[in-house]
Structure to design on (555 residues):
């Protein structure tokens, strides 16, 4: 009889590929203490604004240490409802159309578990956030990757969606602006996607986590388009805009029967999000907007610096319209994305993430996060310039 | 807005070379902007921010704020007083205030006695000064935007994250 502990791991979990990010993380970890500048992070370099942290401390002092309703504090849900209506032009009832979750990641997992039967097909644009495809696989559904391209600024097009569609597709996952490409869709592009979703009766999970970090004009949510709120689950959280990654707090909004289905899974798995994080989130929504604007302005300026420098050193880089990621192509200098990332790390101590960590459509690209100080960015690009010139010789 | 002025307002700690990269200018252009801002008397100069509680930086470490009440002059208002007071080397900053007193004066000196003698011999003897109220600073917690103790913990962000 086998004594390998792996014999107890479920087959579909054993079959999940290890995250490409994890491989690279381990490589960078080996270089500890070597003055590595990391552009490989996926979170803000700002600390959560003090008034938000102070509100959480105050909540603890008042003894707020208990469970909340499964759906989350009603005061927070009311604030979310107002915020989403004001910023995204979609209305959700706090009582039964909003659920507070442990980050958007939990909301995404709840949605997959609540809506997918084994064998259902779920479409997602790729390159994309690392957990999309595994979340689909974990509920025994089938992921259908829809490619996005640098020539379109990594916007998802209705044409690509139609080309990838297959009978049995039930759901579409969107993340606009997108991690890792910074790509997003114009209102006109979204209208075409929305029409396609209505035609094929697709449920849409729209992950809006980077929406506040849109630099070139206002962000449109697909949920705000006519006839879409009833087939959309609007996912959002506090990690990026309010610099609250470690608090793990997010939410999902949608039609009451769908939120109720997600709540069923949530109540048996998570029960509720941390009350301290919920109190902090409430403060963020009520009084945190000034901080969001300040941080967005900083990201915007860093975006311009990073895109300019990438193109100056010969790596073609489109201008990401949102998020804090640039996704330049390394194809022109004749190396693969992995060779580039490993070489840059080993020779010049700058970490970027190979684009294939975000799916095969990331081939030939690397992701560079610009949520780093100007000083660090400037040194990183001087090093990268030296590395690229060395490759060209 | 002038991109260099914008960085100055934010309290930049960048060198002119770094400012050039951030603003998408050449270093020469940044220096030109700085010269123009100096000519326009918008940019007055650079000063270091020090934690004066450290022994190494303790020279001129006694600081006080002084509330000054004056009798405004016909024709000159408070301005002539404020300008006279502001010219003393001991005075770091001087503001006209609303409320219970007229001028708020920030003073720095090498010792308590030096500051005290400035107040009793130079400031309060100016004609028209009705009263002064001096408050010595005991401990500084934040200096011009910099937290002195208990600032943010060293960043422990993961080097690579999704």
């Amino acid at each position: 009889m086998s004594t390998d502990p792996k014999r107890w791991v479920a087959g579909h979990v054993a079959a999940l590929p290890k995250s490409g990010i994890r491989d690279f993380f381990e490589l960078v970890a080996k270089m500890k203490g070597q003055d590595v500048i990391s552009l490989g992070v996926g979170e803000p370099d700002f600390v959560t604004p003090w008034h938000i942290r102070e509100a959480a401390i105050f909540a603890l002092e008042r003894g707020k240490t208990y469970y909340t309703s499964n759906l989350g504090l009603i005061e927070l849900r009311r604030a979310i409802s107002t915020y989403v209506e004001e910023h995204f032009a979609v209305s959700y009832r706090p009582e039964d159309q909003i659920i507070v979750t442990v980050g958007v990641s939990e909301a995404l997992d709840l949605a997959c578990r609540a809506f997918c039967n084994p064998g259902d097909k779920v479409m997602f644009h790729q390159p994309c956030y690392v957990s999309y495809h595994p979340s689909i696989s974990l509920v025994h559904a089938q992921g259908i990757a829809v490619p996005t391209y640098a020539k379109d600024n990594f916007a998802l097009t209705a044409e690509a969606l139609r080309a990838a569609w297959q009978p049995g597709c039930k759901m579409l996952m969107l993340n606009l602006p997108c991690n890792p490409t910074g790509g997003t869709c114009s209102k006109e592009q979204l209208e075409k996607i929305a029409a396609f979703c209505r035609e094929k009766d697709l449920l849409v999970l729209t992950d809006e986590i980077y929406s506040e970090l849109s630099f070139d004009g206002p962000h449109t949510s697909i949920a705000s388009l006519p006839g879409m709120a009833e087939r959309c689950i609007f996912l959002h959280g506090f990690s990026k805009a309010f610099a609250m990654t470690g608090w793990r707090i997010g939410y999902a909004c949608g039609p009451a029967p769908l939120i109720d289905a997600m709540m069923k899974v949530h109540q048996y798995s998570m029960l509720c999000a941390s009350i301290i994080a919920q109190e902090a989130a409430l403060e963020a929504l009520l009084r945190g907007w000034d901080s969001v604007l300040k941080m967005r302005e900083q990201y915007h300026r860093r975006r311009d610096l990073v895109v300019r420098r990438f193109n100056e050193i010969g790596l073609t880089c489109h201008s990401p319209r949102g998020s804090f990621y640039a996704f330049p192509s390394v194809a022109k200098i004749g190396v693969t994305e992995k060779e580039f990332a490993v070489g840059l790390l080993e020779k010049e101590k700058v970490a970027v993430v190979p684009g294939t960590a975000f799916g095969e459509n990331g081939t030939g690209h690397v992701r560079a996060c610009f949520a780093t100080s100007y000083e660090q960015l400037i040194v990183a690009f001087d090093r990268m310039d030296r590395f690229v010139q060395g490759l060209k010789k | 807005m002038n991109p260099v002025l914008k960085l100055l307002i934010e309290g930049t700690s960048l060198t002119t070379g770094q400012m050039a990269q951030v603003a998408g200018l050449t270093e020469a252009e940044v220096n030109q902007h700085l010269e123009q801002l100096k000519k326009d008397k918008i940019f007055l100069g650079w000063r270091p921010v020090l934690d004066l509680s450290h022994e190494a930086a303790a020279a001129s470490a006694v600081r006080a704020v002084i509330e000054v009440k004056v009798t405004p002059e016909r024709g000159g208002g408070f301005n002539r007083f404020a300008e006279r007071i502001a010219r003393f080397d001991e005075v770091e900053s001087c503001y006209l205030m609303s409320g219970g007193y007229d001028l708020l004066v920030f003073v720095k000196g090498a010792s308590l006695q030096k500051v005290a003698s400035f107040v009793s011999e130079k400031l309060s003897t100016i004609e028209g000064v009705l009263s002064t109220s001096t408050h010595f600073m005991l401990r500084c917690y934040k200096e011009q935007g910099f937290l002195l103790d208990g600032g943010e913990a060293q960043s422990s962000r993961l080097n690579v994250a999704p």
Observations:
- DSSP finds 13 helices and twelve strands in chain A.
- The interface with chain B takes residues 19, 21, 24-25, 28-29, 36, 38, 40-43, 45, 47, 129-131, 179, 301, 304-305, 308-309, 351, 353, 374-375, 378 of chain A (CB under 8 Å).
- The domain at 13-47+291-392 of chain A is CATH 3.90.1150.10 (Aspartate Aminotransferase, domain 1).
